Amino acid sequence: MQRLARALVNRGHSVTVVHDVDAFEALGGKAQYQVPERDGVKVVCLRSGWGAISPLLTQQTGHPLGNSDELRRVLGSGEFDIINFHNISLLGGPGLLAYGNGVAKLYTAHEHWLVCPTHVLWRHLREPCPARQCVRCQLVYKRPPQLWRHTRLLQRNLHHVDQFLAFSEFSRNKHHEFGFPRDMMIVPAFVPAPSTDVKVTAKPGEGERPYFLFAGRLEKIKGLDDVIPVFRTYHDADLIIAGDGEHADELRRIAAGATNVRFVGRVDYSAMTRYYMGAVATLVPSVGFETFGSVAVESLAHGTPVIGRDQGGVGEILRQSGGGELFTHAATLPAALHRLQNDSAHRSRCSDRGREAYAARWSEGAVIPRYLEIVSDVLRRRGNCAPS
């Protein structure tokens, strides 16, 4: 969201971001994030005065009860040509889609909330979801069942949105597989171009031991549970794990005694360039139905190949780019590690293809024009003026 907002402002558009502070704090946010003035993005911070009760009521009823008046005022102010909904589960639920009458509207599906109460289609915290068992699944997640999902509230409000957007073909297909009735157009996320100021003095295999990189939240759905044991017998390189999360302690237990597995904790995005550029390859072993694969794209942008599990949006990225290797089971992972570490010509081809695909598909220069093209089409259909 931050990247999209800044990119649009840099192209001369006026952008207002509306977010719910109660929801942010209820989910563990330590402080309210403020976009610096120099970014040119206006931020509206909603506080209901009800604390965590407000997002809980939204989660249950599907309506923005705590902030309804303020949302009606902001979205109905007449200031906007386009309203783009993102992650509205606790901001307003399906009822929010009706707000802002007369304004062209987009909805971007960052996750699978439109068809899944837990957002991620990760059933019972243990497997990709093959079929709905939603009430039981929410109890496993320790979330109260959403009452509005047993009504037709979402279906009744879909017509308020002019166009739905998905990050990948995979995500669009998964939405339709789980019964979502509306067409979705593909607009992937984008990642910034790598910094040109960072110098890596030791390339893979030169100086320090070569390493493969994992970057991301440490959760079971990210798939490290069966990857870490592979490095107990793969002694030619280290595995560096950058990130933190609720599954970190369990992963450290799995890695106990493996001297070539290193946890470096949370790393700022600005510092990740050095990790990407020094790696033989980046591992993206997610076992869930991810809508995209930002880490994979970041790695390709740096010219670092990716070894990804053939699942979800990551598999799609690697097929489109040719920027690495796919594996299905942990038993097939060592062969991919060996090829990218020892076949320099193969690694170089993957690196070049990945960079080219990043520039053509997932850079700001590729994605923002596609986004604005869809915005223009929606405005034309409504008879409004299209933005330049």
Topology of this protein?
Blueprint: H1 2-10, E1 16-20, H2 21-26, E2 42-46, H3 53-61, H4 68-75, E3 82-86, E4 104-109, E5 122-123, E6 127-128, H5 134-140, H6 153-157, E7 163-166, H7 169-177, E8 184-186, E9 211-215, H8 230-233, E10 238-242, H9 248-255, E11 261-265, H10 269-278, E12 282-284, H11 294-301, E13 306-309, H12 312-321, E14 324-327, H13 333-342, H14 344-362, H15 364-382
Helix pairs in contact: 11-14, 14-15
Keywords:
single chain, 388 residues, alpha/beta, Rossmann fold, four-stranded parallel sheet, three-stranded parallel sheet, 15 helices
What does this protein structure show overall?
- With 388 residues, this protein is an alpha/beta fold.
- It folds into 2 domains: 2-190 and 365-382, Rossmann fold (3-Layer(aba) Sandwich), CATH 3.40.50; 211-362, Glycogen Phosphorylase B (Rossmann fold).
- The protein has 15 helices and 14 strands.
- The chain has helices at 2-10, 21-26, 53-61, 68-75, 134-140, 153-157, 169-177, 230-233, 248-255, 269-278, 294-301, 312-321, 333-342, 344-362, 364-382, and strands at 16-20, 42-46, 82-86, 104-109, 122-123, 127-128, 163-166, 184-186, 211-215, 238-242, 261-265, 282-284, 306-309, 324-327.
- A 4-stranded parallel sheet has the order 3-4-7-8. A 3-stranded parallel sheet has the order 9-10-11, with helices on one face.
- Helix 2 (21-26) links the parallel strand 1 (16-20) and strand 2 (42-46).
- Helix 11 crosses helix 14 (344-362) and helix 14 (344-362) runs parallel beside helix 15 (364-382).
- The longest helix is centred in the last third of the chain and has 19 residues, at 344-362.
- The relative contact order is 0.10.
- Residues 201-206 have low confidence and may be disordered.
